[in-house]
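Protein modeling request. Please complete all fields; requests missing the sequence field cannot be processed.
Requester role: graduate student
Desired output: 3D structure, token encoding
Chains: 1
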Amino acid sequence: MEETASGKPLPCRLIHPPEPTMYDQVLRHLEMISRETRIPPKSQLDFGEVALATIAVCLRWGTYFAVLADRTKPIWPQTEQKEISMIGDEEMARINIEASAALAQWIELMRADDSHFRKMVKAAQTLPMLPPLLDERTNDKLYRTISFINSAQSRQNSFAMLKEQYGDGWLEQKRADIMPNPARWLANGLINAYWRNKSGIEDIHAGEWEARPLLQRRITPMQEYTIVQKVAEGIVPSMHAIYNVANKKSEDSWEERALSLAINFSHPDYWSLTKRTTEVLLEGAEP
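Delivered output (287 residues):
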């Protein structure tokens, strides 16, 4: 972090992203744990554990969210003031970017090296995070919905319905948009759906501006738990479906299989398919 005027009327703090990224640092930590504990490569896969690992690695600890929910810091007294925004726009943008990039890498790891992915999932259970309560009935219903297209014939039927509904041009444009980087498109869609729109984070983001601290915690333990709980409700069935699509033997390419999943999720047009992190400019001196 550095203090800067940056052409603003107020003093500013510029937070540079770390190198390597927070996700890469977390993954290295998990690899060390895996080696030390000798986690077997054929560890049984529990999709509740996969969801917790995904949230812990790709959101809670692998992004700027860790700065806002740092348990070693005192809680900012203003967190009780609902009319005040706890998170700046640039901070939200950085979390969106880092979470999407991390999830895309996590999906690619799952697809490319199943045994290593399983070991990382097991190792991630050691990361500090309050576990959510998972409703298996809700998970199963959403899983069945997402998994509907996990066969070549189902995918073709799905594409045929989309063509009939939106036209050939729409589907071909979606294909052109998604196919170059299907994992990132899928990650963007999942982060937008479950983190931005269903976790309650927008309520914490909304409100009046006030100089925000870096040396105090702005996400309370209860808020953190609620966010994890709500994100998990969508991530459990989604990651289960993605895992099956990624690892099921098929004549279709990974890109073609991922397309049928990714096309069901949307994200803002301005969300990047390549950026992994970004700087944050916080206006105002440290409170």
